[in-house]
Amino acid sequence: MKENFTEYFKILLDTPVKFVNRDYTANTIRVMHKPIFTLDHNNDFNDIRFSVAYMGIMDCSPEVMDSFYEAYRKLLSLLHDPMFEINFRLEAGDIFSFNNRRVLHGRKEYDTNSGNRHLQGYYIDRDEIVGRLNYLNRINP
Prior knowledge:
Layout: H1 6-14, E1 17-23, E2 28-34, E3 37-39, E4 45-48, H2 62-79, H3 126-139
Antiparallel strand pairs: 1-2, 3-4
């Protein structure tokens, strides 16, 4: 998107989106305003925030809102383009690990009559991994 739809990318990079997480277990609501795309200090891709479930109501001027939703619809069309999908099936005992902020992911529908299904999630802080790698690189140059 950055190379082929530059204007849309810039809009999604510059427009803060309201994300709302209602954590019923902690009886709290977390709100964050961040753009969908962010870049790092080298102006390279850092992460993507995309969640229909957590996206709140846009809080911006009508001019910005029209541009944002045009860019957002373009992003959605690309996300649903089979050309950009990688599909595979996990088997019992498989582990699939990825950076939740850099890889968009989802699950396909499945037949509930096909047997038991168990999906276990685990989250680890990215800074913990980077910090550990930096430490190991210093002691093992």
